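Following up on my earlier message about cobalt (II) ion. Here are the inputs again, as you asked, copied directly from the submission form:
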Amino acid sequence: MIFQKSEAEIDLMREPCRIVGECLKFVGERICAGMTTEEVDKLVYDFIKASGAEPSCLGYCGYPASACVSVNEVVVHGIPDQRVIKEGDIVSVDLCAYKNGYHGDGARTFRIGKVDEESDKLVRVTEECFFKAFEHLRAGTPLGDIGYYVQQHAEANGFSVIRSYTGHGIGREMHEDPTVANCGKRGTGVRLKAGTVICIEPMIAAGGWKVKILDDGWTAVTQDKKRAAHYENTVVVLEGGAEILTL
Ligand code: MF3
Ligand code: CO
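Thanks, got it. Here's what our run produced:
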């Protein structure tokens, strides 16, 4: 069941979403070689708390941290630990904030110092995949168009789309309908209505799209150990366009 949000509800969602966007920017200005992924998580926890919000990820289905911090071949759901971030790494940080009864959700992939050419392109193309889909989004857009534009851009650049994770609706719950796939056929699926709030979150791999989950039950890594990147925003569908709430 896809809920449409009223203008009043969207206004309530602006605050947790703004906190997510600001927190990602704050982390991006501080993340560097020599930090542990746990230290990144601490930045996120402190920022969200200081903003008067709650970190939605903490305790979600037993998840033990406020952020997912995914280095290089880790696609998503990297659990913060003692791993030291190194020069040349790419690090995805995914976080959610809860305030006013609503969640906001976003992710960025950060380059640590100078990264190799392929990683640099991977991070850039993953962001572009989001914007390719976003540009085509407005009331009446078939859901499958989002996956189509993401997949088309990723594959045109020689990368692959992770299949086993998707974007999602968001609101009073962190994950609501619809499921927002990153692969798809243009013109298929439900037509999105104005007031629908979704997370579009391309997860793109430099090699193959197959992943495996480590023994911790969360950490998703590429099977071929090639790098992956993640970029996510919470967006609201409007008549004639869409608005990003987490920038
Ligand atoms: N923020 C993630 C998403 O995009 C959810 C992370 S799972 C959690 O859906 F357990 F960390 F919360
Ligand atoms: Co999400």
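One observation from looking it over: The helical segments are 7-30, 37-50, 117-135, 143-156. Hope that helps, and feel free to reply on this thread.
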